[in-house]
Design brief:
Elements lengths: L1 H32 L1 H24 L9 H13 L2 H33 L1 H15 L3 H12 L3 H25 L3 H9 L4 H38 L5 H10 L3 H29 L5
């Protein structure tokens, strides 16, 4: 009996160790499969601790480097009185409309240039030359010509997102396998069938890459326009905070821009995963 009890105890301990090893292995596989979501809280906590430690160690005043608690308090204040949402929604509207304008024009022109070598040789030098002018340099002109309202910010944003989407569209359309083109033509596919059944699906991976870059650049364009001339928006909020030495306000506006950028980027990634699920 005693020997049987000892053997049962040993077997139980082995089973528990095996279960623990399997749990640890499962956790490691989960971290390896989804590293960003799993490690994100730890990374944020580490940054906040280092940030607070630096402020306390150097004893920085709030107008030079505020601590996380000061920024959190300012965020709650601006959110509770509606100021943060008021400025954020204006910037978000500028970003979305600028994206729609720039991406739509780039997709149409990119398709035409991708299909026609002659048109590409004719227009490409002028398009490239237009992109050599920094947007920051022409933003004041657009503000003068179209005012400091919504239109000028949408135009600035549209200009800055136009070129990446244009290039990705041309590359995507030209990357379609010519043999598949010949196959579709042999099956007497119409032009619309050729586009929706072959060219668009084949170009989507490259197009989504350009869209991801355009989303980030759209935020830059909106903020540049608000820096140059605006009375509302997160860029205006940053300028206001700089003028009155309210550094926590600047941090709040920058963090709001980060949240907008991450949200739009994740939205494009979700669309990419949905429309390209056939590749998996």
């Amino acid at each position: 009996m005693a020997e049987g009890t000892i053997l049962a105890t040993i077997q139980k301990e082995r089973d528990e160790r095996g279960s623990n090893r399997r749990s640890a292995s499962g956790l490691l596989r989960g971290v390896a499969s989804y590293p960003a979501p799993v490690t994100f809280p730890f990374v944020v906590a580490s940054i906040l601790l280092l940030w607070e430690g630096l402020v306390r160690w150097q004893d920085y005043p709030a107008f030079i480097l505020p601590g996380p608690l000061a920024v959190a308090g300012k965020t709650l204040t601006l959110a509770s009185n509606g100021i943060l949402w008021k400025h954020a929604q204006v910037t978000l509207l500028e970003i979305v409309l600028g994206l729609l304008l720039g991406v739509s024009l780039a997709l149409i022109l990119g398709y035409l240039l991708g299909k026609s070598q002659t048109l590409d040789r004719l227009l490409s030098p002028y398009i490239v030359a237009s992109q050599t002018v920094p947007v920051v340099a022409i933003a004041p002109l657009l503000i003068i010509w179209f005012g400091n309202g919504l239109l000028s910010k949408v135009l600035i944003t549209g200009i800055i997102v136009f070129f990446p989407t244009l290039v990705s569209t041309i590359v995507g359309i030209r990357g379609v396998d010519p043999d598949l083109h010949d196959l579709m033509r042999s099956l007497r596919a119409s032009r619309s069938q050729l586009f929706f059944k072959l060219e668009l699906p084949a170009a989507l991976p490259v197009l989504f890459g350009g869209l991801k870059l355009s989303v980030i650049l759209a935020i830059v364009g909106a903020v540049v326009g608000e820096f140059v001339g605006a009375d509302v928006g997160l860029g205006f909020l940053i300028n206001l905070g700089r003028g009155v030495l309210d550094t926590p306000m600047i941090f709040v506006a920058v963090l709001a821009l980060v949240v907008i950028a991450q949200t739009l980027y994740l939205g494009i990634s979700a669309l990419e995963n949905y429309y390209l699920r056939w590749r998996k």
